[in-house]
């Protein structure tokens, strides 16, 4: 999967630019990147993500089973995916958002799901997707911070490494700058040159600390006692109501909270797709609660872009909120894949001046696929027990007990069995769409060197 060595005139560079549409220091960094890329003689595709047409990922996996390698939503996502797949170097530039990416960049990465294969395999001891293509671009992640923040930089590097692994990059580089307060031009030029030249990148985070998820899930050690009267559960899946694992988990937790006398409101993240009455009503409902629980799937190693968009609005108008908890699920069988997303949610809580009440994270979320949790019985017994244990603590204003977090993370089934069952599921779903099984590995964005670059070119 190494990108071929090509003459400068044949090299392709993709820039995904999530900087604000203004003349501020962040945009100047993105413009300088575009200039460096142009000066290299490569073919440039630059997408200003605050301006493109890009709907949120629906999480329906039809880019794997109905139109393999292509998203059915008619917007700029397929153009971005094609430019990504055909690039020799993909550059992401974004202001840091609670240690991760701005919502517009995360939303664009969510929509790249089709460039990888639906089938799983074991890689360095954990489950990963197989590659769809023979070649993938190297990646350069440039984060922009208002002021130096070592913890945010560490989390940004973790996200970048995870994305590089799952998007099959042969190597990756990261760089964090504070363009409003410190010189940055020389560091940017040097790191860009390293990435373009194909020099050794940073080590892939194949072996994160074994306790990384537990540390991310751990509540603040000194939460002030404040019994909860009202809780709001934000369902972070864009699937239709009643069809997501995130909603199933949220409803199960809601039932347990209601048994503790807590009034619970469910809010769906799809209400935040467009500004207007629905978004305003959703924001008002969230602001009436003392406790916010974000129940969301893992998209490309992190919270979905639409969830980040909702969090951005919640932070600007927190209302009565006092604390936040996480309830995350990953499509991989190992719950540990949720660690960076949970850590970002914790940073959001602290940056918004809210307490962190802890987290619950599970793997193999698609096994549930919208069914009521109680109906799943024996297989989900640990997760059912975890929610029952977490609810009284949350209702009393305490943090989620570590025992509950550990139970939630228990594997539903052996990883090898999960990978086999998933393969059968993709075949079955493809058949229901009339897709021949051997088309699941289609390569619609295979590079043809005579093609012109996509995007605005600079």
From TrEMBL:
This is NADPH-dependent FMN reductase. Residues 442-458 have a biased composition (Basic and acidic residues). The keyword Flavoprotein applies. Residues 435-458 are annotated as: Disordered. It holds the Pfam family FMN_red. Residues 12-119, 232-350 form the NADPH-dependent FMN reductase-like domain. Keywords: Flavoprotein, FMN. InterPro entries: Flavoprotein-like_sf (IPR029039), FMN_Rdtase-like_dom (IPR005025), ISF_SsuE-like (IPR051796).
């Amino acid at each position: 999967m190494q990108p071929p060595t090509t003459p400068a005139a044949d090299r392709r560079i993709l820039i995904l630019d999530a900087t604000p549409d203004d003349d501020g220091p962040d945009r100047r960094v993105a413009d300088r990147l575009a200039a460096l890329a142009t000066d290299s003689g490569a073919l440039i595709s630059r997408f200003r993500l605050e301006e493109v047409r890009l709907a949120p990922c629906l999480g329906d996996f039809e880019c794997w089973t109905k139109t393999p390698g292509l998203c059915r939503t008619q917007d700029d996502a397929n153009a971005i995916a094609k430019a990504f797949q055909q690039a020799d170097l993909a550059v992401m530039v974004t202001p840091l958002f609670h240690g991760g990416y701005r919502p517009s960049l995360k939303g664009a990465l969510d929509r790249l799901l089709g460039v990888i294969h639906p089938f799983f395999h074991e890689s360095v001891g954990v489950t990963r997707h197989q590659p769809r293509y023979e070649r993938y671009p190297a990646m350069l992640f440039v984060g922009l911070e208002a002021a130096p923040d070592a913890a945010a930089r560490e989390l940004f590097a973790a996200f970048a490494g995870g994305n590089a692994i799952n998007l099959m990059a042969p190597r990756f580089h990261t760089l964090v700058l504070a363009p409003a307060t410190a010189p940055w031009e020389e560091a940017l030029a040097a790191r860009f040159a390293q990435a373009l030249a194909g020099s050794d990148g940073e080590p892939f985070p194949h072996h994160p600390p074994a306790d990384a998820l537990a540390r991310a899930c751990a509540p603040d050690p000194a939460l002030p006692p404040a019994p909860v009267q009202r809780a709001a559960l934000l369902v972070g899946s864009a699937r239709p109501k009643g069809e997501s694992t995130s909603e199933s988990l949220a409803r199960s937790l809601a039932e347990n909270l209601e048994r503790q006398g807590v009034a619970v409101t469910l809010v769906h993240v799809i209400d935040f797709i467009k500004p207007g009455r629905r978004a305003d009503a959703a924001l008002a409902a969230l602001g009436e609660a003392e406790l916010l629980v974000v129940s969301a799937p893992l998209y490309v190693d992190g919270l979905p872009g639409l969830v980040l968009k909702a969090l951005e609005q919640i932070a600007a108008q927190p209302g009565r909120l006092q604390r936040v908890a996480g309830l995350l699920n990953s499509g991989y069988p190992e719950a540990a894949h949720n660690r960076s997303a949970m850590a970002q949610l914790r940073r959001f809580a602290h940056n918004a001046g809210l307490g962190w009440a802890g987290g619950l994270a599970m793997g193999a979320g698609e096994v549930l696929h919208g069914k009521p949790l109680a109906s799943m019985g024996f297989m989900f017994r640990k997760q059912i027990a975890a929610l029952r244990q977490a609810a009284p603590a949350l209702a009393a204003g305490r943090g989620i007990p570590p025992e509950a977090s550990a139970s939630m993370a228990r594997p539903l089934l052996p990883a090898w069995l999960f990978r086999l069952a998933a393969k059968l599921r993709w075949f079955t779903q493809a058949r229901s769409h009339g897709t021949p099984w051997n088309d699941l590995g289609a390569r619609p964005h295979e590079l043809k060197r005579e093609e012109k670059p996509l995007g605005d070119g600079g």
